[in-house]
Amino acid sequence: MTELYRVYGRPLLSLVLRLTGGDRHWAEDVVQETMIRAWRSAHRLDAEAASLLPWLATVARRIVIDDQRRKNARPQEAGEGPLENLHAPDGLEDLLRSVVVSEALRSLSPAHREILNETFFRDRTVNEAAKALGIPVGTVKSRVYYALRALRVALEERGAAL
């Protein structure tokens, strides 16, 4: 093994440095792993071959490819920094928003609450709301307009906006 490393160590390292994009630490790890595989496969290596470099280069290339695939298969690690600033919804904002909207709706006149209930919360068209309430379509339209204006003012008074 010492002779194998002495003869092929430098040429293999320069080849692997090109394969790893100049990452010396990674290249040294690949050369070391290649030599370990050569040692494990010593019984299969042809001692009479003119050069073992082609076999070693093939093994090293496969190790680099496997490392790249392994790195690409895992999500990239980002560290703790970005997680500290990550806002995780806990439902509190939605709860507060619903409380503010409920209070604002309670501050409206009964006619305005009724028209918003029919058109927005029950998802009825203007014609369906007019029929359900027994009032003209024009009245429904104007009540919706004025109810939304009143709701906007009520929300702004509470620090929220429509």
Structural class: mainly alpha
Number of helices: 8
The whole-number mean of residue pLDDT values reads: 86
Label the overall shape: rod-shaped
Oligomer category: single chain
SSE order and pairing:
Elements: H1 2-19, H2 24-40, H3 53-73, H4 81-84, H5 92-106, H6 110-121, H7 126-133, H8 137-157
Helix pairs in contact: 1-2, 1-3, 2-3, 6-8, 7-8
Q: Overview of this structure, please?
A:
This protein is an all-alpha fold. Helix content is 72%, strand content 0%. Helix 1 (2-19) crosses helix 3 and helix 7 (126-133) packs across helix 8. The radius of gyration is 37 Å and the shape is rod-shaped.
Briefly summarize what is shown.
Helices cover 72% and strands 0% of the residues.
From the structure above, extract its key features:
single chain; 162 residues; mainly alpha; 8 helices; 0% strand
